[in-house]
Amino acid sequence: MFRQLRLAGLKLRQAVQIKEKNMAMQTDPVCGMQVDDQKTTAKSQFQGTNYYFCSDECKRKFDQQPQQYASKAGRAQSGGGSGQQGGGSKR
Fold first, then answer.
1. Among residues 15, 46, 8, which one has the least CA distance to residue 29?
2. What is the residue extent of each domain of the chain?
3. pLDDT at site 90
4. DSSP state of 30
5. Residue 86, exposed/middle/buried by CB under 10 A (0-12, 13-18, 19+)?
6. Is residue 34 within 8 Å of residue 27, measured between CB atoms?
7. What is the pLDDT of residue 14?
8. What local confidence, expressed as pLDDT, does residue 89 receive?
9. Pick from 26, 88, 32, 24: which is nearest to 61 by CA?
């Protein structure tokens, strides 16, 4: 019985690790909130980089002044932040 419990625990741990790997969190460049880039529908592209937003309001603000927010996101990335992934198209 102990062996079965131990095996079940290992399988659960592996499942959690796989889910965490597949879940890529990005930082909303407008408000700084963490956003799951697989779930959000608010996305924009600027100068070849994808940006992900927590809301349509943050996306709208970014789209009005992308240079301002992109440079802020770039400073955060160079300071050790996670940054955004490149590629894709503007929504």
1. 46
2. 24-91
3. 44
4. T
5. exposed
6. yes
7. 63
8. 41
9. 32
